[in-house]
Every structure is written in C-alpha cells, then in structure tokens.
Amino acid sequence: MRKLRYFLIFLGFFLLSPVSAKQSPKSEIPTSYRVVKGDSWFGIARKFKISAETLAKLNGRTTTENLYERELLRIPKGNEKISVSSPESLIKEKPSYPLERKERVVKKFSELTYDPHKGIQFQRGTSSLVRASLPGKVVHVDYMDGYENFVVLEHQNGLYTVYGNLERIQVTEGQEVKSKDRLGILSKDKGLYFQVNKQKQSLNPERILEGGI
Predict the structure, then answer these.
(1) Which of 91, 92, 109, 191 could potentially form a cystine with 204 if both were Cys, beta carbons 3.0 to 4.6 Å apart?
(2) What span, in angstroms and rounded, lies between the C-alpha atoms of 192 and 120?
(3) Which domain holds residue 42?
(4) Three-class SS of residue 169?
(5) Residue 165 has what DSSP assignment?
(6) Spatial contact of 72 and 34, defined as CB atoms under 8 Å apart
(7) Which residues of 160-173 are buried (b: 16+ CB within 10 A; e: fewer)?
(8) Is the pTM of this model over 0.85?
(9) How does pLDDT run across 57-74, given as a tens digit for each residue?
(10) Alpha carbon distance 37, 5 (integer Å)
C-alpha cells in the first residue's frame, strides 16, 4: 500500500494528473496514533491537519528526533491547544544548491498548458554530486523512463523535492538527511532534473533557490 501511495504521488509530480480526494464522512479525531513503517512527523501531522511541531511538542519531542515503528503518539483533541511560536513552524533555512557548482538551466519551469514543465533541467556540466537542498526524509527511491533513477525527499510544511537523472543513488527510503547531504551521482549524459512541490502544487525551483521558501 505504501508503495502504491507514493507511486500515485509521483504520477502527480511527473505526469501532472489532477488527483481528486474522496470526501470522507465527518468523524471524531482520534486521540492517539500508532506509528507505522515509513511515517514521518510531517506526514502524520498532515493526516490530522496540525503542524508537525505541535504534534512533536505534545509528545515531548522535536521534529529532529526519529520516530519508532509501533510507537504510540498523542494527537491533540479539537479543543486542545499547544503553543508553538510561528517561526518554528516555518522553514528558516534557505535551500542549498542541489549540485556542487552552479550549472546553467537548459529547460525552465513552465505552467503553460501547451508546454508544461514542473521542474527545471540543469545542463550536464562538471558537477556530478547531487545533494539534498533541504533537510528532510527520503520517502521514495525509484526508476522512471525519462527521469532515470530519482529520489524524492519530504520536508516540513508539505514540501517535497525531486532529484532525477541519477546514475547511482546513495540513500535509502526512510533515511533522514541534512541540507547538502549526498543523495547520489548524476548520469554521465544528462543534467539534473530538480522539482519542488508544496503538496500538489509545483513551485518554481529557480525562485526557491534564489529567494528561499
């Protein structure tokens, strides 16, 4: 099921197919949650429509600490308020460049209906090491025609980054990474494909790299 869930996410990333979620009947929010393999603070928090920092604080933890399979977490009730200062809920860190050196962008981000391109394609220059642009968790590692080997990272506030055209991948699913940590080695004949999503919306990666989130 987990593989299928992430595969559907990637169809949205790469093929830009709109996904319509089923409306579930209104029900009472549970007061606890049992952690399963592949969970992250941000993923669980999104299920319950709360911030990851609020969830972690309620459980006496921080979002930098690892979760453990079958760990029982408290979930805030509807009327339970946890004070978390707003700066903590934002990504304070400016994204790092995903390559060792700046390379020219040969295909730019585009939202044009007749020529959509939801990421950017760098020129294959002298940089071969691909690095994490922000701290996060590796949620998917796979191969897809047109993108070769690729890695998807999950970050705070529903952000995802995608790194495609890799010859070798040097991380595993579930691994926590810091900004500038090594993700893999670029293909010899293709430049890096880089994409930034906030949930289902694609953002312009060049603007994110220049000005931050």
Answers:
(1) 109
(2) 8
(3) 2-14+26-89
(4) strand
(5) E
(6) yes
(7) bbbbbbbeebebeb
(8) no
(9) 888 788 877 888 888 888
(10) 13
